[in-house]
Write a structure and sequence with these properties.
Layout: E1 3-10, H1 17-33, E2 38-40, H2 51-57, H3 65-77, E3 80-82, E4 86-90, E5 93-101, E6 107-112, E7 118-121, E8 125-128, E9 141-144, E10 147-151, H4 160-168, E11 173-177, H5 184-200, E12 203-207, E13 224-226, E14 232-235, E15 241-248, H6 250-258
Parallel strand pairs: 1-2, 2-3, 10-11, 11-12
Antiparallel strand pairs: 1-15, 3-5, 4-5, 5-6, 7-8, 9-10, 12-13, 13-14
Helix pairs in contact: 1-3
Bound molecules: the ligand NC(=O)CC(=O)C(=O)O.
The ligand NC(=O)CC(=O)C(=O)O is lined by residues 117, 154-155, 158, 179-181, 184.
Length: 276
């Protein structure tokens, strides 16, 4: 496999969980019709992005209705499906979780947001995920052929150590279902995506909900894919949009030869290690 067709599915929220799932599935079908093998949904795609709402929408993963619907469509279409994120309940705890389903509908892995979105920019954006959610405690990867992919969620992309750990584990791509807000979005969104891609010589996909100014939390939009050179290969606008892009996997090996920074890390001077 030298190229992989990827779909970034930027979605509007809908009034109910069932309508959100139905909207996602209709876009997943269109992505498959356009040849996508890997399909990625945004952060919190089946519920409002609100600490007050997470509990009401939470479900067990993979037993809950959202996971069951995603597993079924992944198996029917034979695609790799990164299920964005949705609130997960385990016992009394809630997590912001990204499940990945394989072409047989099997749960390949699930990743729970490691760094919770606690931001306070008065008059612009205040959010405290840690008031409702528990942070995850491990990394998660899956593979499509020889391509190893690491997962992060939104705020996680602000932590360069996380992407560097995935690099160390051999990942040539990272996927971040995300939901930046319209204040940090224009300042940081592209920059963080491109920086993680360039530092780690990997593809980086950022997938956002569409922008809806009527919701309590307004997402930025502008889903994008960066290549290992830090270039933006494709970018959505603010509305619901299905972005399809072919990534050239040869680029990962070539750039490591041409700009050999990964081989030049000075393990005798500094160290970075994934613990879990
Ligand atoms: N939604 C997030 O987790 C993060 C975010 O909006 C930001 O980093 O800005």
């Amino acid at each position: 496999m030298s190229t992989l067709r990827v779909a970034l599915v930027q979605l509007y929220g809908r009034p109910t969980k069932q309508e959100c799932i139905a909207n996602a599935i209709s876009q997943i079908r269109q992505a498959k019709d356009r040849g996508a093998r890997l399909i990625i949904l945004p952060e919190c795609f089946n519920s409002p992005y609100s600490t007050a709402e997470f509990g009401r929408h939470a479900e067990e993963i993979p037993r809950g209705e959202t996971s069951q619907a995603l597993a079924k469509v992944a198996a029917e279409l034979g695609v790799y499906l990164v299920g964005g994120t949705y609130p997960e309940r385990e016992g009394t705890r809630l997590y912001n979780t990204c499940p990945v389903f394989g072409p047989k509908g099997e749960l390949l892995c699930k990743y729970r947001k490691l760094h919770l979105f606690d931001m306070d920019i008065p008059g612009r954006c205040t959010f405290q995920e840690s008031a409702a959610l528990t942070a995850g405690d491990r990394l998660a990867t899956f593979s499509i052929g020889s391509l190893k992919i690491g997962l992060g969620i939104c705020w996680d992309k602000r932590f360069p150590e996380l992407a560097a750990c995935y690099r160390q584990l051999g990942c040539d791509m990272m996927i971040f279902p995300s939901a930046f807000d319209p204040y940090t979005g224009p300042l940081h969104w592209d920059l963080l995506g491109r920086a993680r891609a360039l530092d780690n010589q990997m593809f980086v996909a950022l997938v956002s909900p569409a922008r809806d100014p009527t919701t309590e939390y307004v997402a930025y939009g502008y889903s994008l894919m960066c290549d290992p050179w830090g270039r933006v290969l494709c970018r959505a606008k603010e509305e619901q949009e299905l972005l399809i892009t072919d990534i050239d996997l040869k680029m990962c090996g070539e750039i490591k030869q041409q700009i050999p920074i990964l081989r030049q890390k000075r393990g005798d001077i500094y160290e970075l290690k994934a613990m879990k």
